[in-house]
Design goal:
There is one protein chain. Helices cover 40% and strands 22% of the residues. The two termini are 59 Å apart. It folds into three domains: 82 residues, Arc Repressor Mutant, subunit A, CATH 1.10.10.10; 104 residues, Periplasmic binding protein-like II (D-Maltodextrin-Binding Protein, domain 2); 91 residues, D-Maltodextrin-Binding Protein, domain 2 (3-Layer(aba) Sandwich). The protein is α/β, with parallel strands linked by helices. The longest helix has 21 residues. The strands form three sheets. Strands 4-3-5-12-6 form a five-stranded mixed β-sheet. Strands 9-8-10-7-11 form a five-stranded mixed β-sheet. Strands 1-2 form a two-stranded antiparallel sheet. The chain is rod-shaped.
């Protein structure tokens, strides 16, 4: 018979050793394990050969452990407790958590979603720190490379390693100076493409859906100004005849500086929360994802804008 070694012993055998040591009875150990007594005896015999020690002997009708057995079992107990702890879901206490989470996102998400999330974190989990990365169009790759823990944006990921929830539904609107003669009536598509436009290009890293829709119709904006971001756009077009097309929630942040009207090319889109298998079972990340969903759902309704979406 091949000599058993410690490396050939499984955790079930070590658990048998522990139970026999604690109960000092082959019969009681067999009952606890749900096996017959001969199975316990067979396992202990293998352990004796593996440890080169009798482990137990009978004295006065009792099962007595050897001195070395006591030393071995002390180590086995620690090992089994640690293994069992690994299989137990880790509890999460937001107030005591200390962790950094990296979120890939762009201007829209930093303006519309992150402020509420950061405020909630400061109140409920002040030890959680957020690092926001500019995702441009590389958000999915950042997740794949583990350079980001979460992605928030209008991109969905394909693949079994990705998970996602829909955060909100959005659409494009037009903004212009309140004195613009087009501010008081609906824009036709013909007027829309003809008027001078301040167009957000995102530095060439992203093309807005309304531009792609116009292109599919064989139409092109009369762009007289290109800017890389919607930031400060209300000041740029103030006092001019320019109009700009931006997501409705961004338009609302401009306040009274501009007039907001419906766009003839609203091109609705969704904003998603995306993560991977790496963090899917994490108690902290599960809590944070639910917090983000909660924060988006509790945002004040934006005039004329679609509502947040809770299912996804």
């Amino acid at each position: 018979m091949k000599q058993p070694t410690l490396l050939t012993m499984d955790f079930a055998a070590l658990r048998t050793l522990r139970l026999l040591y604690e109960n000092r009875s082959f019969t009681e150990t067999a009952v606890l394990l749900g096996v017959n007594q001969s199975a316990v005896s067979y396992t202990i015999e293998k352990l004796r050969r593996a440890f080169s020690d009798p482990l137990f002997f009978r004295q006065g009708g009792k099962v007595v452990p050897t001195e070395r057995c006591g030393i071995i079992v002390a180590s086995v107990m620690r090992m089994l407790d640690e293994i069992e702890a690994l299989a137990t879901p880790v509890s999460f206490d937001p107030a005591a958590a200390e962790q950094t989470v990296t979120i890939a996102c762009n201007f829209y998400e930093r303006q519309i979603i992150l402020p509420g999330v950061v405020k909630a974190l400061r109140e409920r989990a002040p030890g959680i720190r957020i690092t926001a990365l500019n995702s441009t169009t590389q958000g999915i790759q950042l997740l794949k490379m583990s350079d980001a823990d979460l992605l928030i944006g209008p991109l969905q990921a394909d693949g079994h390693e990705f998970y996602s929830r829909t955060l909100l539904s959005e659409r494009y609107v037009c903004v212009m100076d309140s004195a613009n003669p087009l501010a008081d009536r609906p824009l036709t598509l013909e007027q829309y493409v003809a008027v001078p436009h301040a167009t957000v290009t995102y530095g060439g890293t992203w093309r807005s859906r309304y531009l792609l829709q116009l292109e599919s119709l064989g139409l092109k904006l009369n762009t007289v100004l290109e800017v890389p971001s919607p930031a400060g756009l209300e000041r740029v077009i103030s006092g001019t005849d320019l109009i700009a097309t931006v997501p409705s929630r961004i338009a609302e942040t401009y306040g009274d500086a501009v007039k907001i009207i419906d766009s003839p090319c609203p091109s609705p889109f969704e904003v998603y929360l995306v993560w991977t298998t790496r963090t899917h079972k994490s108690a902290m990340h599960d809590w944070l994802r639910k917090l983000i969903l909660e924060c988006v759902a509790s945002q004040p309704r934006v005039v004329g804008a679609p509502s947040p979406i809770l299912e996804g």
